[in-house]
Amino acid sequence: MPRPRKDSEILSATERLENAFWELLADHEYRKITVTEVVREAHVNRNSFYYHYASLPELADSAIMHAVEHSTVQAPRADLNPDIEWRRQCSLVMNDPVQRQRLDRLALLAGSHSSPELIESLKDFGRLMICLLYTSPSPRDSTSS
User: Fold this and answer.
1) What pTM was estimated for this model as a whole?
2) What is the pLDDT of residue 88?
3) What pLDDT sits at residue 138?
4) Which residues of 95-107 are buried (b: 16+ CB within 10 A; e: fewer)?
5) How far apart are CA 115 and CA 119, in angstroms?
6) Residue 71: Cβ within 10 Å count
7) Which helix (H) or strand (E) holds 3?
């Protein structure tokens, strides 16, 4: 399959590989997933896989990082009731199909098909996102100057 154009409806090879990883993790133990299965599921060749990733753990890290970094969780505002704000944030995530898919994928990392390495990656990327969330200026901070 030729490389998709940027304005194409076809997903990029990396997106297809990450999607394949999540699909396989839903049905197989992580330690039993192979590169061959991933490329078959993603409909790409092995060369494409190794062009983008050095190994299956690198693909897993990339998939986890993208799922974590594209979540819509925001730092809570100090002037709002934390309980109400938590419920509002949860409602936003659960009512958005894209965010719900990300949450479902991340939940696989706590399931029976996961591994200690996947859980550690989730913790690392989660910590990184929390650090970025609380150290980046919020939009309302930049408008008040």
Assistant:
1) 0.75
2) 82
3) 52
4) eeeebeebeebbe
5) 6
6) 16
7) none
